[in-house]
Amino acid sequence: MTDLIIEKLKNIVGSEALLINEPMKNHTTFRIGGPCGVMLLPKSGEEIRDSVKVLRESGVKYYIIGNGSNLLVSDKGFDGAIIKLSKSFSKTEVNGTEITAQAGAMLSGVSSLAAQNSLTGLEFASGIPGSIGGAVLMNAGAYGGEMKDVVVETEYLTNNLEIKTTKEHGFSYRHSVFQENGGIVLKTRMVLKKGDKDEINAEIGRLTAQRKAKQPLSYPSAGSAFKRPEGYFAAKLIDDAGLRGYTVGGAQVSELHTGFVINRGGATAADVSKLLDDVRDIVFEKFGVTLQREIKYLGEEK
Length: 302
Ligand SMILES: Cc1cc2nc3c(=O)[nH]c(=O)nc-3n(C[C@H](O)[C@H](O)[C@H](O)COP(=O)(O)OP(=O)(O)OC[C@H]3O[C@@H](n4cnc5c(N)ncnc54)[C@H](O)[C@@H]3O)c2cc1C
Fold this sequence. Notes:
By secondary structure, the protein is α+β, with helices and mostly antiparallel strands. It folds into 3 domains: 3-87, 2-Layer Sandwich (Uridine Diphospho-n-acetylenolpyruvylglucosamine Reductase, domain 2), CATH 3.30.43.10; 90-199, Uridine Diphospho-n-acetylenolpyruvylglucosamine Reductase, domain 3 (2-Layer Sandwich), CATH 3.30.465; 216-298, Alpha-Beta Complex (Uridine Diphospho-n-acetylenolpyruvylglucosamine Reductase, domain 1). Helices cover 29% and strands 25% of the residues. It is built from 8 helices and 19 strands. The chain has a 5-stranded antiparallel β-sheet with strand order 6-7-13-11-12. Strand 17 (251-253) and strand 18 (260-263) form a beta hairpin. The radius of gyration is 19 Å and the shape is globular. The model has no long low-confidence stretch (mean pLDDT 97). The structure holds flavin-adenine dinucleotide (FAD).
């Protein structure tokens, strides 16, 4: 990327919000990934729009991330711009039974904010380590709840670089319309219900304990590696295929929860990718079911 493009981007986001050759392993929960060309940390929808405009006009590839908790980045990194929506774009507002949050707010933080305000409906989200933007894009869900149950309206940047608001999210299992239309989620409004603070906190405590007991939270991972195939459970198929503990380099099918792939230390993206392909192939051979990756991949494979 030329100095001129970098200068233009600095003029939009400020020089403190532009990092050069930033290692992506510091921005993914897998702790894997080579450097990106630049990383931008915008503070507003307008900064995101203007940055995307410059990047497109300059022919530079770009990719949006939140907390990098559903993301595997190539060992070679990403030869383009990462637009990371995080702390600097994370304002939240409570209005009666509604919460509005910018895309960079952490879902767990918004779930606690709901609890503090005696609002029920986001308990399911307390342990999902993603941003609001990533959670809306993925229609994140757990323990019977999904973003689609609470999200009513989203402000997003369209592919034509207009900032628009929509009530049509096209939500389905781990899917939203933004995966198809290339929209960048900027802000979302959620409607909750008045509840009892102690009961809400007790439910959050119960779900947290359940996660701690059942998920390998002491290892870096990106959560469930595969989507749930219709009529099956990915973790059970993987276990029944004899793949508990299956290892490629530093990557391993978790012994504790076979739906998770963990980084046991020093895993490369190539290790994880090979492991995911092996698991998919072996499960298909044994049961005729095709597992699809839930984890997004960024960069060149291998
Ligand atoms: C320990 C652990 C447990 C997990 N448990 C769950 C669970 O119970 N349920 C569940 O659903 N998930 C779970 N996950 C996966 C993950 O946390 C969710 O998918 C989360 O919603 C991803 O959010 P993120 O901000 O980290 O997204 P990222 O990983 O940063 O990005 C994921 C995708 O979203 C896109 N994206 C991010 N922000 C935006 C935006 N503002 N606009 C448009 N696109 C955007 C990215 O381009 C990418 O394609 C878990 C992960 C871990 C590590």
